[in-house]
Amino acid sequence: PARPAARTAAALRASSGNGVASANGASANGTGRRLVLEDPPLVSEEVSALMAEQGITDLEKSGLLYLSNDARARALAKKAAKPEKIKNEKGGHMMWSEVGELGQMIRKGDMSWEDLALDDIDIRLKWSGLFHRRKRAPGTFMMRLKAPNGELTAKQLRFLAGCIEPYGEKGCADITTRANMQLRGVTLGEADQIMQGLVEHGLSSVMSGMDNVRNMTGSPIAGIDPHEFLDVRPLNYALNDMITNFGHGNPALTNLPRKINIGLSPSRDDFPHTHINDVGLVACKDPATGEVGFNVELGGYFSIKRNATSIPGETFLAVDQVVPYCKALLEVFRDYGARIDRQKARLMWMVEDMGADKFRELVGEYMGGVTLRKGVHLKYDDVWARRDVLGVHPQKQPGFVWVGACVPAGRLFASDLRDFARVCEEYGDGTIRLTVEQDVIFPNVPEASVGAMRAEPIFQKYEIEPGNLTRGMVSCTGAQFCGVAIIETKNRAMAIVRKLEEQLDIPKKVRMHWTGCPNSCAQAQVADIGLMGGPARLDGKAVEGVRIFLGGTIGEGAALAAEFEKGIPCEESILLPMLRELLIERYGATPKAGVLAGA
Ligand code: SRM
Ligand code: SF4
């Protein structure tokens, strides 16, 4: 229940001013790290309600910048990581209102993007989902959306097509490895109008970058899957609304110590790869009571310095505890997470430091004194292989199927978005789902319509039954747009995979993930064959190269791939034969008739 407004107002005033904690020196919960506040940290609805009540639209200008005292005190420490200092000078949420002003000034010709302060344009705008592509396409932005559970409607697709169309060749859209959409080519002269349009269409871009929660992932076949424990879409929407304040931005949860990924898996397939999410909620039945709920896994993440699979969170959540639990967890992360060493700021470090039991108790405290249940022990007698969702599959609704089409490397153009919109309206229910493998699902297609649907020209480009290598290909953005990329990925991946399929018969799906640098946005370590941009030399010269990872498994009991080779030049005459050999030796591929072995 919300606290009375008067108390909330007092608490909010207490957290303004110089922002230094009113600590009484005690340490809570035995962690020895927490400054105890006179007022407990505010929760986001309270801040939002208070802002609405007092007609406040801009917290900073109102002098009531919200930030828990504890987090702020530590962030102000001299040793804080650079992004913390940047945030303390001016929070990224400040740009939510400034984007509109900037747009107007640029449209009037009163300023250009080059007049903006460097930290504003290159860092703080990421809080609005605007990533300046300074190195590859200066003056243009990648705009990252939030598409909970990867679900989009035909109307939304047409709106997105209209956003990128004016940018010509520079305007494209990418399906991301978090079943999300990114738009390219956006300039600051239109960004505010696009953002406004997104909200009007039930989408948003705020809080999609920097120290925020990333897109909520679930299952691309949620609600239509005969094997799911429950439909996670309502939870993913509720979580997204709670986190982003219905897409308008939520100051209370926007200054986390670092990014954080949350995924909800509703079936034994683990479609969202919970093992590499900071917070993985794995649906299951409590063997003792038969209740469907979620076991919590914590701490999975990839970074340049560390790649960790999650550890048991020793917590079982009832379905109605999911939103309050995640909210409390984010507040705990905000208040306790590391803000000095950014390499140790991901959730895993905090959970390891505290221990899963203490972490559960603390989150329970933040939920208002809830005693959370310990995780349930699951032992399945059968082996469950993660299903491939491409192709045509019967739904749990009799007479209906879903149709999965492969979008190589996730790259789309305005005309593709319009085609998807028309096709999903004509044959399905007017919606599509994106997958973390960067593909598209058309749900709720009557069986009788499949023949006509298959004949649509768009499925020649985005195949329903693609080759066994194409269907497993995933690629990050790479050097075409990403400033930290070591190598080009998407175009190279498409070209090499096409050649390998021309040369080989590949008997089963092989998941090949291409990622341009060790940040591993395309999750090279979950792949059968993972390629990660890295240094290499050829004839004594530094060239684009890859590290090769082999043997990642996904689904139940997932394990990360191990490094097999490094320093392999991307030069096609070297990389192509090497991949061909791997496919022959390890995945049963055979050279096609007429293609010489070793060709
Ligand atoms: Fe990522 C940074 C693209 C999923 C780990 N990621 C970046 C930046 C923002 C770097 C930059 O400033 O240019 C890339 C933007 C390039 C561009 O123009 O698109 C970028 N990441 C992506 C996307 C688009 C890859 C893709 O092609 O699909 C994915 C967007 C997902 C989304 O919709 O939100 C994307 N990134 C991931 C994932 C995969 C996942 O979430 O399952 C990871 C590994 C998992 C994880 O985070 O634990 C990932 N990205 C990173 C990291 C390393 C994080 C760390 O703790 O060190 C960075 C660097 C950073 O954050 O400082 C990064
Ligand atoms: Fe950019 Fe590296 Fe992420 Fe690829 S893996 S998108 S190159 S940050």
Characterize the structure shown.
By secondary structure, the protein is an alpha+beta fold. Helix content is 30%, strand content 19%. It has a 5-stranded antiparallel β-sheet with strand order 1-2-5-4-14. A 5-stranded antiparallel β-sheet has the order 3-15-16-13-12. Strands 17-19-20-21-22 form a 5-stranded mixed β-sheet, with helices on one face. A hairpin with a 2-residue loop joins strand 20 and strand 21. It is globular. It starts with a helix and ends in an 8-residue tail after the last strand. The relative contact order is 0.09. Bound molecules: siroheme and iron/sulfur cluster. The site of iron/sulfur cluster (SF4) has 12 residues, from loops.
Q: Please, how many helices?
A: 17
Radius of gyration: 24 Å
Distance between the termini: 69 Å
Mean pLDDT: 89
Gross geometry:
globular
How many E strands? 23
Would you tell me the structural class of the helices and strands?
alpha+beta
Largest sheet: 5 strands, antiparallel
Uncertain runs with pLDDT below 50, 5 residues or more?
1-43, 62-69
The proportion of strand residues reads: 15-25%
Q: What share of the residues lie within helices?
A: 25-40%
Bound compounds, each kind once, are: siroheme, iron/sulfur cluster
Strand order of the largest sheet: 1-2-5-4-14
